[in-house]
UniProtKB/TrEMBL annotation:
<feature type="region of interest" description="Disordered">
    <location>
        <begin position="164"/>
        <end position="197"/>
    </location>
</feature>
<dbReference type="GO" id="GO:0006412">
    <property type="term" value="P:translation"/>
</dbReference>
<protein>
    <recommendedName>
        <fullName>60S ribosomal protein L13</fullName>
    </recommendedName>
</protein>
<dbReference type="InterPro" id="IPR001380">
    <property type="entry name" value="Ribosomal_eL13"/>
</dbReference>
<keyword id="KW-0687">Ribonucleoprotein</keyword>
<dbReference type="InterPro" id="IPR018256">
    <property type="entry name" value="Ribosomal_eL13_CS"/>
</dbReference>
<comment type="similarity">
    <text>Belongs to the eukaryotic ribosomal protein eL13 family.</text>
</comment>
<dbReference type="GO" id="GO:0022625">
    <property type="term" value="C:cytosolic large ribosomal subunit"/>
</dbReference>
<dbReference type="Pfam" id="PF01294">
    <property type="entry name" value="Ribosomal_L13e"/>
</dbReference>
<dbReference type="GO" id="GO:0003735">
    <property type="term" value="F:structural constituent of ribosome"/>
</dbReference>
<dbReference type="GO" id="GO:0003723">
    <property type="term" value="F:RNA binding"/>
</dbReference>
<keyword id="KW-0689">Ribosomal protein</keyword>
Amino acid sequence: MGFAHNNVLHANHFRKDWQRRVRTWFDQPGRKLRRRTARKTKAATLGTVRYNRKVREGRGFTLAELKEAGVGRKEARGVGIVVDHRRRNLSEEGKKINVERLLAYKSKLIVFPRKAGKPKKGDSTGDDLNAATTRAAVPLPDAYPAEAPRKITAEEREFKAYRTLRDARSNQRHEGVRKARQAKKDEEEANKKKTIL
């Protein structure tokens, strides 16, 4: 590399005992492992308490819950029920609780008619219109009661959860192919019977 212009020449100093000032990072893999195990133990201690027991309000009721409670999708939005079309019900228990909440809300709901003289279907009439109103939300039900400790039965001990899940998943995956194969087999047998007769 050449020098350009009228600049001062470098006076580089390379005798500074650099090896004493080197910062090594040999403990990095060990630190990584320690941090990871610490995160795992923290998640194990907090996970069940934080996420498993808390019942929280979602973004809205599912379409299946509305259907079971007898509320239309557009009607729900008109009477202050929030709808979440993306949510799916993963358990019958949760669905049942939400349907009960919807029914309780419907029983307390007062819909004022647009024209006092001409109430439409679904509008409140009579004494309901004079009742005291509130905007308080229907409270969430209590969390599921904890089961008392008990002995594990022999049947539960022999039950293989992982194997059962794998079998169910496999059956679901191959269901269509098996049905098609069975239909083909039945058709061939029916054709054989026709040729024999």
